[in-house]
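re: ur question from yesterday

yeah so i grabbed the chain u mentioned. its 237 aa long if i counted rite. heres the sequnce exactly as i have it in my notes:
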Amino acid sequence: MKKLNIFDELKVNTYPGRGIIIGKSPNGKFAVTAYFIMGRSENSRNRVFVEDGDGIRTQAFDPSKLSDPHLIIYAPVRVLGNKTIVTNGDQTDTIYELMDKQMTFEQSLRTREYEDDAPNYTPRISGIMHIEKDVYNYAMSILKSANGNPDSCRRYTFSYNNPIAGEGHFIHTYMGDGSPLPSFEGEPKEIELYDDMEFFADGLWNSLNEDNKVSLFVRYIDLETNETKSKIYNKNK
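ran it thru and got these structure tokens back, copy pasting raw so excuse formatting
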């Protein structure tokens, strides 16, 4: 698989929807993750990321304009011990709660399906990072309808053990804009990562479509100390 430039990938897609990036920095020192949200409706665009303990959550920027919290208000990032969970919906809580009861990432997601937002049936995308004693691995998942047919849920999990330095994987909800929105296809895209978090984070934010981008979260985790550096971008200020 050809390693892609993530900035170029984002610039040519006006509406990838929501996206998760996970990987390892080129110097091998950091576990890297990023999560962004986009929106076309006023309700979807009326959001910001805020810190919530070790993770983040979405909240309405203007509560008076919040018409429907369903599917848009949730915790995209939660930390369970040495595991960091990143998802595009309230399945973050499902993964957290069931893994806390000794179920696996994949087992937890078998209890969930794509989103109930006909006719799009938006995929649920999820990622988990596991760091323990300098050992780092991660997995990504997508739950999607059968090419727009809600009668069948298709579940795919991709696992990455001992990730390659400088390499990341990118999964997002939509192939692009449309009506209905076309679901992501194939395995997560292999992308280049960077040692400099500020450069990477700024590059992502500046590459997202100006009209549709809403919020971005980026985190670097030191693989030796487990110390984290994070950055949040919100269009609404």
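noticed a couple things. The longest helix spans residues 197-207. also The chain has one domain: 6-234.
anyway ttyl
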